[in-house]
Write a structure and sequence with these properties.
Blueprint: H1 3-12, H2 30-41, E1 58-59, H3 92-140, E2 150-156, H4 162-173, E3 180-181, H5 182-185, H6 189-196, H7 203-215, E4 223-226, H8 232-251, E5 265-272, H9 275-299, H10 314-326, H11 328-337, E6 342-344, H12 349-365, H13 370-376, H14 389-403, H15 405-425, E7 431-436, H16 444-456, E8 460-474, E9 481-494
Parallel strand pairs: 1-6, 2-4, 2-5, 3-4, 5-6
Antiparallel strand pairs: 7-9, 8-9
Length: 507
């Protein structure tokens, strides 16, 4: 191979993973390039990983054996081209740039697909939650939608001790309501009938069963929910439930039912253990349960405990743990809504319980005190202020156009004469500052109509009024300076900025 072709092949090799890149001074021959293409095409798309929680903070109670995490290898479809001595090496920069541009476009396309999927999930979650909430409300009535004031959402890896720590958590938080297990809720005859028919239990049915179970609890005390959420749609439904409980609180605050709608408090508890520890714990649990049941059968004393199939089969145990790892993205999404830490559940019961209570204290520190919250709760949330803004805008414009046409006409004339010319002059910048001393804007109705009309046409408008005082004369008797006051109105009009692409000069 010619030196120029060797340099080009070496430069192209940088596109591949460094595991396949040659030493700095090695010349790539044609057989090597062919072998490298075969090797690259046979790479697996993903390598088995160990602990997937490399991006989350874990509260440690004791050092636990961990398996190093292996990031999945990226599958490349780019192969090393082989050129003969007559190849045009001047094409190398263009080909490299094209490959880089294609990779950038693929990344942008992937990001766009993720964003579209995220928007679709949010829309689906709203539809699912609203329908489930309506179904439950139709049965119980609006006044009886009384949820517990504190809800602990308990999740964790298989064998992390959720059932073991549940009684201690209930005692520590003063919760007298029985815990809600999602596996028990989904074992009803109706759900079993769906499973027997080979159908999936929808998220809407899961949320509906959960809401009904929460309403069966005493609202004055809290409750613990085991096993929810387990999907990204359920995470979004959990957020919507929190918001709906706040809405009920504000709705009934000035009514005799206000005590039945307390301020909602959500606590997140996620227990974590390594896969090997999870495997050992579940196998040991199965062994102990089998020995216990055998002793009960021999002696006739005691109660037979439930034997789980997953406590005896290593493949099933690892499959359950893999499901937990697959749901890790849901935990990441949940942590952005309700901040929490993973809790290492490797230690003894007392040490893990101390970490759980410390985690609850941390989550409490992120919330306002009751009196402070009540003092500012009447102020609408920024995320809610614009929900009905479009309907209100249309209603105002229709009202002024029909009932006060003079005011409406004056506002339109002011926009045509003073606002539109300035907007046209600053069309490229995307922002125009309009200053006017027109006395019409002193009328609050005209100012409101001006802002409403511009808002309806897609402009973002803010208005500011300032008073300028100018000395006019001096009173010769009292030597008092007589000032003349002028009202100046400033309208800051913002709109989408337009980009003008410069023409490329071609020679």
């Amino acid at each position: 191979m010619a030196p120029s072709s060797a340099r080009f092949a070496t430069k192209q090799a940088t596109i591949l993973p460094r595991l396949l890149s040659p030493p700095a001074q090695q010349t790539i021959t044609q057989p090597q390039a062919v072998a490298r293409r075969l090797c690259c095409s046979e790479l697996p798309r993903a390598m088995p990983s160990g602990i997937p929680f490399t991006g989350a903070r874990v509260l440690l109670s004791a050092k636990a054996p961990t398996t190093p995490s292996l990031p999945p290898l990226r599958h490349y479809s780019v192969s090393l081209p082989v050129y003969n001595e007559k190849s045009n090496v001047n094409k190398a920069p263009a080909l490299a740039a094209a490959a880089a541009q294609e990779e950038t476009m693929n990344d942008a396309s992937s990001q766009k697909e993720k964003q579209e999927k995220r928007i679709s999930e949010i829309k689906d979650a709203k539809l699912i939650f609203n329908q489930a909430f309506k179904n439950v409300q139709d049965v119980h009535g609006r006044d009886n939608m009384r949820f517990p004031k504190e809800i602990i959402w308990l999740m964790g890896a298989p064998g992390s001790g959720k059932g073991t720590h549940t009684p201690a958590i209930l005692r520590a938080r003063g919760i007298t309501n029985p815990s809600i297990s999602m596996s028990s809720l989904l074992s009803t005859p109706e759900c079993k009938d769906l499973i027997n028919k080979g159908l999936m239990i929808s998220d809407g049915k899961v949320v509906e069963n959960l809401l009904s179970a929460l309403l069966d609890c005493e609202p004055e005390v809290g409750v613990l929910v085991d096993g929810f959420p387990r999907s990204e749609v359920q995470v979004e439904c959990l957020k919507l439930l929190h918001e709906r409980m706040h809405e009920l609180r504000r709705e009934y605050k000035q009514t005799p039912f206000k005590d039945y709608f307390p301020r909602p408090t959500f606590r997140i508890c996620v227990l974590y253990v390594d896969e090997e520890i999870s495997l050992g714990r579940q196998l040991m649990r199965g062994k102990l349960i089998k020995e216990h049941n055998a002793q009960v059968l021999r002696s006739g004393k005691g109660e037979v405990r439930e034997e789980r199939v997953t406590d005896y089969d290593e493949k099933l145990i690892r499959a359950r743990y893999q499901i937990f790892k697959d749901h890790y993205s849901c935990l990441l999404k949940l942590s952005k809504i309700f901040p929490f830490h993973l809790i290492n559940a490797v230690g003894d019961i007392d040490s893990v319980m101390r970490i759980i209570l410390k985690e609850f204290e941390y989550q409490s520190s992120l919330e306002l005190e009751h009196d402070t919250y009540e003092a500012i709760s009447h102020i609408p949330l920024a995320t809610k202020i614009g929900i009905h803004a479009r309907q209100d805008l249309i209603r105002r414009l229709e009202h002024y156009c029909e009932t006060e046409p003079d005011i409406f006409a004056k506002a339109v004339r002011f926009i045509d004469q003073e606002v539109s010319p300035m907007v046209a002059r600053h069309a490229i910048s995307g922002q125009a500052l309009v200053r006017s001393d027109n006395p019409m804007l002193s009328d609050p109705k005209i100012a409101e109509v001006v802002i409403s009309i511009l808002s309806e046409r897609g402009y973002a408008v803010t208005m500011d009024e300032r008073i300028h005082e100018t000395p006019k004369r001096v009173d010769p008797k009292t030597w008092e300076i007589i000032l003349e006051r002028t009202h100046v109105f400033a309208l800051n009009v913002r709109f989408p900025q337009h980009h003008i692409q410069p023409l490329e000069q071609k020679f």
